[in-house]
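User: quick one, sequence for these tokens?
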């Protein structure tokens, strides 16, 4: 019985991990396939990666990637800044008003991207703003701000108000208190907001599709258009590189957390 109690949860966990990571493993393997646009293995090659960086066929994959990273970087930084200011403002509201404001913040998080994308398209049309990179960035910032608030607000609530009061009693201005006391204390929330909003912006397709003209293509838009024509080995190579970059960041983050936790554990001993 004890054996079965251990076997069932472990087998279930193994199946879940296989279900999640098997498609990624297949993608990585076929990024080295020598036969283009085929699920038949034709041999190992780096040609897909070489052609990706050469961009000789004019597919514009790298241009779309750079555009996507640019928009995501701007959107994540701007939405996180708005998130910090909004969270600080919410912290000083009354309880009822704060609950109402947070409820209104939750609404965009559960709203389908289709509704958000069409809403902003109609708004820009009503204002007479032509679709461009500007409208794309504005729509992405609006998408990310509620998630930034949800990431930062818990850290604001955990902040010891006596620290800010002590800093101001010692002669610090409001800006100095914000820069030297509040920002360092809520930095984990800011970092999680940056990562979350950056990921959301890179991943978005629907909102981008409705709020940019045909001269600009984000990576999800390009992937969707290329997927209609079948398997593209260069796309496999690009997504493999992106997965590798994320994996390295996760490993470095875990190593950093482990190093910080190790001295704390040594002190307790």
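Assistant:
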């Amino acid at each position: 019985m004890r054996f079965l109690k251990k076997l069932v949860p472990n087998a279930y966990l193994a199946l879940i991990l296989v279900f999640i990571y098997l498609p990624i493993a297949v993608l990585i393997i076929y990024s080295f396939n020598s036969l283009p646009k085929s699920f038949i293995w034709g041999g190992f090659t780096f040609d897909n990666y070489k052609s990706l960086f050469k961009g000789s066929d004019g597919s514009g994959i790298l241009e779309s990637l750079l555009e996507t990273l640019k928009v995501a970087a701007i959107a994540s930084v701007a939405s996180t800044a708005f998130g910090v200011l909004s969270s600080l403002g919410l912290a000083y509201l009354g309880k009822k008003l704060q609950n109402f404001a947070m409820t209104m913040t939750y609404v965009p998080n559960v709203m389908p991207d289709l509704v958000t994308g069409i809403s902003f398209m109609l708004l820009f049309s009503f204002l007479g703003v032509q679709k461009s990179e500007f409208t794309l960035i504005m729509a992405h910032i609006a998408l990310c701000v509620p998630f930034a608030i949800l990431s930062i607000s818990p850290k604001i609530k955990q902040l010891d108000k006596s620290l800010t009061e002590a800093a101001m009693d010692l002669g610090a201005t409001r800006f100095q208190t914000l820069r030297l006391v509040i920002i360092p204390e809520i930095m984990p929330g800011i970092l999680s907001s940056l990562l979350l909003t950056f990921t959301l912006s890179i991943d978005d397709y629907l909102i981008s599709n409705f709020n940019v003209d045909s001269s600009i293509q984000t990576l999800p838009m390009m992937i969707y258009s290329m997927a209609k024509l079948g398997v593209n080995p260069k796309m496999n190579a690009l997504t493999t590189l992106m997965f590798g970059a994320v994996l390295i960041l996760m490993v470095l983050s875990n190593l950093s957390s482990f190093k910080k936790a190790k001295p704390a554990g040594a002190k307790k001993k």
